Amino acid sequence: MYFTSNYKENMKKNIAILSLLTLCFGSVSAQQLSLRGTVDGAHQGKVYLQKYVDRYYELIDSAEISNGQFVLHTELELPEVYGLSLSRSDTPLLVFLDKGDLTVSLTAAPGYRGSKITGSATHDLYAAFHRERQGDLTAFIRQHPQSLASLYILYREYVSRLSSSEIQQNLSLLDPSLQQHPFADILRQVIKSREKTDVGQQAPDFTAKTPQGEDLSLHDLLGKGYLLLDFWASWCGPCRKENPNVVAAYREYKEKGFDILAVSLDKTREAWLKGIEQDGLNYRHVSELKFWNSDIARLYGIRAIPANLLLDKNGKIVAKNLRGSDLKDTLAKLLTAE
Predict the structure, then answer these.
(1) Which residue from 64, 69, 80 is spatially nearest to 36, judged by alpha carbons?
(2) What total number of domains does the chain contain?
(3) 213 and 193 housed in the same domain
(4) Percent of the chain having pLDDT more than 70?
(5) Top-confidence residue, 2 or 51
(6) Which residues is 94 bridged to in the sheet?
(7) What residues make up the domain containing 75?
């Protein structure tokens, strides 16, 4: 995975700050980890242990694979979120490491499908929530307010589905022992941003570069009709799958005053422009080329993409995260009502 030098420098600073907070508040403690495992499909090589730090992984340790087995003995903050992988370039298998002796059956299948973790109560709880598929997050947090699994699910998986008030409601249910965790701090930052970008609020202005290198401000495009502020990236598979729906809505309603400003979280200009061309995105684009360090994404509290906001001609947010046919259906209703 590629990161810009500025992104790495900023994340190093953030890690140092978060580590200091952890030491000060004692939300986790450094303990000796005993992790044994097997690797199905690999008799040699390495298993990499990485710590999850807000959407990327930091290498902590590694172990040699011998006859399909490996052992990791290292001092870690526990319980905490980590990842295991067979390559530094892979997205690791997410694991909640906990106190005690743990075992892992790691597969070499794509996405490490079929891997199993035993001995971690936190991981078991996380897996149990997902077996429900339509689990009630609030009820889950009420039942397990002290579990890191509850905080992680809220922070990582539900933050983009909830309003600022809903995030705050669920966050307040968590035990005080989790309130100073870095994930909780991030949620509070998102709440501040979302309070300004919930439906009914005035969309904050910003300025960024177009593919031609010119400055373009959000407010330059207001005043004519409905405007979709669409967050995406060429590296984002779900975004590329959603793009045909956005293009279809644009083609149908562009003559009726509908416009789009796409904000890319791409890393390089080349990839950004290639994605625009391949998907036929013939509308306006801007990008800071800062990946997840995007100031615009932070301004709007964007934690996952694709994401979008529909604005009226005055810049008021009238809808959010319209997927599939929802965008065309919403435009049809709004334009019919006028």
Answers:
(1) 69
(2) 3
(3) no
(4) 91
(5) 51
(6) 83
(7) 29-118
Q: What CA–CA distances, in Å, run from 15 to 10, 179, 185?
A: 9, 18, 13
The Cβ-side half-sphere exposure at 79, using a 13 Å CA radius, reads 25
> How many other CB atoms are found less than 10 A from the CB of residue 69?
14
Mean residue pLDDT of the chain comes to 89
- Residue 54 CA to residue 308 CA, distance in Å, equals 21
Query: pTM of this prediction?
Result: 0.79
How high is the pLDDT of residue 247? 98
**Closest to 151 in 3D by CA, of 131, 129, 133, 134:** 129
| d(C-alpha 246, C-alpha 238), whole Å | 13
User: Nearest-CA neighbor of 304 among 54, 9, 13?
Assistant: 54
| Exposure of 228 in the CB half-sphere (CA atoms within 13 A) | 30
37 and 105 in a single domain? The answer is yes
Q: Would 333 be classed as within a structural domain?
A: yes
Where residue 325 falls (left for φ over 0; alpha for ψ -120 to 50; beta otherwise) is: alpha
CATH code at 67?
2.60.40
Q: Is the dihedral of CA 146, 149, 152, 153 positive or negative?
A: negative
Going by C-beta distance under 8 Å and a sequence separation of 6 or more, which residues neighbour residue 63?
Answer: 46, 47, 49, 70, 71, 72
Phi, psi of 282 (to 5 degrees): -90, 55
Is there a domain that residue 36 lies in? Answer: yes
Distance, in Å, from the CA atom of 278 to the CA atom of 251, rounded to the nearest integer, reads: 17
